[in-house]
Amino acid sequence: MKKILTIAAMVLLSLAGWAQAPNYNITLAANMTYSGQSLSNIWYYVDELGNEYALVGAQNGISIVNVTNPSAPVQVVQLSGPSSSWREIKTWGNYAYVTTEDGSVGLQIVDLNPLPAAPTVSNVYYWTPTINSQTLSTIHALHIDAGRVYLYGSNIGVGGVLIADISTTPTAPVYLGRWNQNYVHDGFVRNNKCYAGHIYDGWFSIMDVSNPASIPTAVPTQSTPGNFTHNTWLATNNDDTIYTTDEVNNSYLTSYDISNPNNIKELDRIQSQNTGGGSIVHNTHIINVGGNDYAVTSWYKDGVVITDVGRPKNMVNVAWYDTYTQGSGGGFSGCWGVNPFLPSGHLIASDINNGLFVLAPTYQRACYLEGVVTDFVTGLPINTASIVITTPNITSASDPSGWYGTGYAVAGTYSVTYSKPGYVSQNINVTLANGQVTIQNVQLVPIATVSIGGQVIQSWDNAPIPGARVKIWNGTFMFDTITDINGNFVFPTGYTGTYEMMAGKWTYVTRCIPNTVISSSTSSLVIPLDSGIYDDFAFDFLWTRTGTATDGLWQRGEPLGTSNGNSQANPEYDVTPDCYVNAYVTGNTGTSAGDDDVDGGWTMITSQVFDPTGYINPKIEYSRWFYNGGGSGNPNDSLRIQIFNGTTTVNLELVVPSTPGQSTWVNRSFLLNSLIPVTSTMQVRVRAVDTGPGHIMEAGFDHLRISEGSLTGEQEPLNQEQQLVVAPNPFISSTTVMYAFAGAQQNTFISVMDLSGRVLAIYPVSDAVGSVQMDLVLPAGTYFIQANRDGNRIGKPVRVIKVK
Predict the structure, then answer these.
(1) Which position has the higher pLDDT, 19 or 516?
(2) How many CB atoms lie within 10 A of CB 20?
(3) 776, 767, 696: which is closest to 729 by C-alpha?
(4) I need a labelling partner for 572 at 20 to 30 A (CA). Which of 72, 258, 262, 642 fits?
(5) β-strand 525-529 against 450-458: which pairing, if any?
């Protein structure tokens, strides 16, 4: 569990009805708040008289709450401990065992025998053995099985697994051994097997702990979907199925077949009731009710979810209650833990922000829908076909064998859509019933394919461009390839329809062609590209990334907007207009501002080398994003945009919190000749720096281009008697001449001349102010454009360069 900001104050307990968020099959019995204290994990206890208790990890120590009357919980006592934003609690017999990563108390042991009378400090013990010259002081989590306590994430060694016997003297554990190969965050033990969650390694392991003094070093492992494995729990009636959670945004509860530890197989994964909402799963426990297993799971901002896991290959959510009504999405606020093991059947849940919840669940069997999706023509199974129960919008997909499993909590008749790109979709009405499996096999009819091909060429001479990237897409299909040595590309199994099309390559201007209709009669597609130094990040033109930051590294992709209060931290969109939705942004994961901002150093992207020496007065243009705020004290982070010529680096901009334009895309342009000697080995560098902890810092970069700047400034004005302005300059195949003369004109021409003064083209003009577009079929080289009236020159000639 990541650290949560602590809230230090005295305990004030109050009972309050909680404004209920949308829930199903779980009702609120009571909510008890802890004023000035955040909560962490929770466990349960039943005394000899049958009274039920919630053992609550609170900021200032373990809180023991009598929940025998679920609508009127009463705190019996809060036993003090180190101030901590997280505690883990388990019981053995009449003793509670408490761990924390704050303070130096080791394993705290509480004798619960006085209950229902309040235990006092004389009932509290501490175990702080010295192991391999290290004294046990901090522990992240624990599990207890068969008279042994298993301690995870301690300060001993690498924080693996410590094992002690508590069966003989519960208040004085006896150290038995340890496993010290990798850090273990949490775990579950049964039948001398430890199922350990290696959060930072991203996998769980299975280790034989029969002999704690000699645990095998090599253990079977399995990666989990979020690569941040937090907690594990076995099925109730067998050791062949395990469930895991990943403590990351938009994570999953996942089931595995571990009957062969050397060939572990993922069975299914499921999110909370808010699928795709970004919430983080934390702890799951498996309970058997009426002969069927259910996973009871805490999801930080989505509350408590009960999942029918009786068919572990097809898990279905059947009940939920949101304890956190302040918002949704990712981040470490809301429900830390939930415990389902009270004999009464009530759930007790700890919400970091909102206190203890006592909940009344209804355990209801799911309505299952399963079947096989095959190809109508070949009869072969279809992998990754989409299956959507449309009304509640529950989405599933077929596996390589064509099999799919999905379901819903509520019985009824539903419309289900079966689809896959390249096939005709089918809508089928199915009737679902609780506790029953409805089998619906489907055959999808394939759509006829067409070959989509063409060539990418240079716009000025039709020469092929090898190695160009080509992308064609619409709402259903996307095709992406690279042209061959002759500039040709082909998608042999495309589909008819209307597509967006684009092509690009470094040192060419990416081109977008919307609304391209492709049919069986479509001939070869030709995409001409202009020469130019341009990147809107529609394609990956191999910018390099370096830095020391631990989070928030530059990423190319569609920006996933985040906000900090009323301020936009990461942008929601890239700069428009350009060819695609991509930009470079820092830390493009998560849903809240602090999820993946720049932390712990700097992160920099550097372009490929480019040559702007063909321009008379090269101008660099780009768009940048910067946000720095939140936390305490004054924000102090920065963004630097730099130009490098092979030997010298110059700042184009140093963006700091006081720079105008925070939380917006800001367009900037600079004339390079006034800043740095222009060479043929130029590069752009964009460097985001987290100067120190305590603030949120995000940055973005998009729409880089090099073009011809004005000879006298950013924009050269037109004079009434003389001026010509030519843009673009240099140009490839065409350019535009803007002119302004005094009064209407007669016998006025604009001429194009070579270096010898020979006239190559003449454009008559009659207006006082206007423009002429010149499409010039000329060799690459230097030319002059001159205004003439009645055979006399008007003003000075303008030098222009035609490239390639």
Answers:
(1) 516
(2) 14
(3) 776
(4) 642
(5) parallel
Average of per-residue pLDDT values in the chain: 90
- CA dist 106 and 86 (Å) reads 14
Distance CA 553, CA 183 (A): 25
- Alpha-carbon separation of residue 108 from 49, 168, 196, 579, 668 (angstroms): 25, 17, 22, 60, 60
Tens digit of pLDDT for each residue in 146-191? 999 999 999 999 999 999 999 999 999 999 999 999 999 999 999 9
CB 705 within 8 A of CB 622: yes
**CA-wise closest residue to 699 among 608, 635, 617, 624:** 624
Distance CA(343)–CA(345), nearest Å, equals 5
CA nearest to 284, candidates 326, 324, 312: 312
What CA–CA distance (Å, rounded) separates 144 from 93? 11
Which DSSP letter does residue 365 get? P
Residue 11 has pLDDT above 70, yes or no: no
Contact 215, 187 (CB under 8 A): no
Pairing of the two strands 193-198 and 394-397: unpaired
Q: Do residues 570 and 628 touch, judged by C-beta distance below 8 A?
A: no
d(CA 691, CA 783): 51
pLDDT tens digit string along 376-388?
A: 999 999 999 999 9
Q: How far is Cα 18 from Cα 616, in angstroms, rounded to an integer?
A: 70
- Tens digit of pLDDT for each residue in 143-155? 999 999 999 999 9
**Cβ–Cβ under 8 Å, residues 347 and 296:** yes
The token pair at 512 is 């977008």
CA distance 139 to 125: 15
DSSP-assigned letter for residue 672: G
Percent of the residues in the chain that have a pLDDT greater than 70, as a whole number: 94
Cα 166–chain centre separation: 43
Question: What's the rounded Cα separation, in Å, for the pair 583 and 580?
Answer: 9
pLDDT score for 10 = 29
Q: Which three-class secondary structure state does DSSP give residue 683?
A: strand
Structure tokens at 369: 């829908």
- Could you tell me if 90 and 99 are in contact, meaning their C-beta atoms sit under 8 angstroms apart? no
Distance, C-alpha 334 to centroid of its chain: 20
The answer to whether the beta carbons of residues 609 and 643 sit under 8 Å apart is no
The rounded distance, in Å, linking the Cα atoms of 5 and 333 is: 10
What's the chain's Rg over C-alpha atoms? 34
Residues 88 and 98 sit within 8 Å (Cβ to Cβ): yes
**Terminal CA-to-CA distance of the chain, rounded, Å?**
59
> Residue 718's pLDDT is what?
39
User: Is-contact 684 557, C-beta < 8 A?
Assistant: no
Residue 723 has pLDDT above 70, yes or no: no
Instruction: For residue 396, give both structure tokens.
Output: 């599933």
